[in-house]
């Protein structure tokens, strides 16, 4: 999928979205993006949760990246089938080294409507051979669309989600590589406890 970009850029954006969420919101359960750099040995986990029953789990390893998404309204949901089961083809042809990362109970492997992967030496993203009925979709475009590449779109989303003013200039500086300083945190959210935010940000970096 073109909008995801390469693995390096994807990881950078996911980390920064999670860091910004930490700054904007002191309540972990209300945040949209999370990133754990030490989910496992040489393994990072990014999650996107819209609070409406949909989620994306993104596992980043030395072998590559696997993305498992779940749109609860999708026709492909296991809950929409006569017998609860993963929709045919979703995990088809997924490399074992990446698929095995979903075996952790926390990954809710069967709660899935789409799966994508990109091995470390791949140049494109891949999906299983899934036949989606006309007029239906797997939720990938909807959910992966929240991994913004256009910072103007991200800022507009964040303003609405957190109901607060957000400086486009500061966001651009952060994505260009400026360190997340006390001044940056206070400029984005004057009410945020800086020490608490920094402690959480360390887990992302």
Overview of the structural elements:
Strand 3 and strand 4 (64-70) form a beta hairpin. This protein has a 6-stranded antiparallel beta sheet with strand order 1-2-3-4-5-6. 32% of the residues lie in helices and 18% in strands. The protein contains 7 helices and 6 strands. It has 205 residues and is α+β, with helices and mostly antiparallel strands. The chain folds into 2 domains: 1-40 and 147-205, no CATH class; 51-145, no CATH class. The chain is globular. Helix 1 runs antiparallel to helix 7 (194-204). It has helices at residues 7-24, 96-99, 140-144, 151-162, 168-175, 182-188, 194-204, and strands at 33-40, 43-49, 55-61, 64-70, 114-119, 126-127.
Alpha-beta content class: alpha+beta
Let me know the number of strands: 6
**What are the secondary-structure elements, in order, as H or E?**
HEEEEHEEHHHHH
Strand order of the largest sheet: 1-2-3-4-5-6
How many DSSP H or I helices? 7
Number of domains: 2
Helix content: 25-40%
Biggest sheet details: 6 strands, antiparallel
Morphology: globular
Low confidence ranges: none
**Rounded radius of gyration (Å):** 18 Å
- DSSP strand content: 15-25%
Q: How far apart lie the N and C ends? A: 26 Å
Task: Please give a quick description of this structure.
This protein has two domains: 99 residues, no CATH class; 95 residues, no CATH class. 32% of the residues lie in helices and 18% in strands. It has a six-stranded antiparallel sheet.
């Amino acid at each position: 999928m073109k909008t995801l970009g390469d693995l390096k850029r994807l990881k950078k954006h996911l980390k920064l979205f999670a860091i910004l969420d930490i700054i904007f919101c002191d309540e972990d359960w209300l945040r949209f993006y999370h990133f754990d750099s030490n989910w496992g040995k040489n393994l990072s986990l990014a999650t996107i949760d819209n609070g409406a029953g949909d989620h994306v789990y993104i596992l980043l390893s030395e072998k590559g990246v696997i993305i498992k998404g779940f749109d609860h309204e999708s026709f492909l949901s296991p809950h929409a089938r006569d017998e609860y089961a993963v929709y045919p083809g979703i995990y088809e042809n997924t490399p074992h080294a990446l698929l095995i990362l979903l075996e952790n109970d926390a990954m809710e492997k069967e709660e899935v409507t789409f799966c994508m992967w990109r091995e470390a030496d791949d140049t494109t993203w891949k999906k299983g051979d899934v036949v989606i009925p006309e007029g239906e979709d797997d939720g990938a475009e909807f959910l992966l669309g929240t991994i913004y590449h256009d910072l103007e779109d991200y800022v507009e989303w964040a303003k609405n989600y957190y109901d607060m003013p957000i400086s486009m200039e500061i966001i651009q500086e952060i994505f260009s590589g400026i360190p997340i300083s006390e001044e940056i945190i206070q400029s984005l959210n004057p009410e945020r406890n800086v020490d608490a935010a920094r402690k959480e940000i360390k887990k992302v970096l």
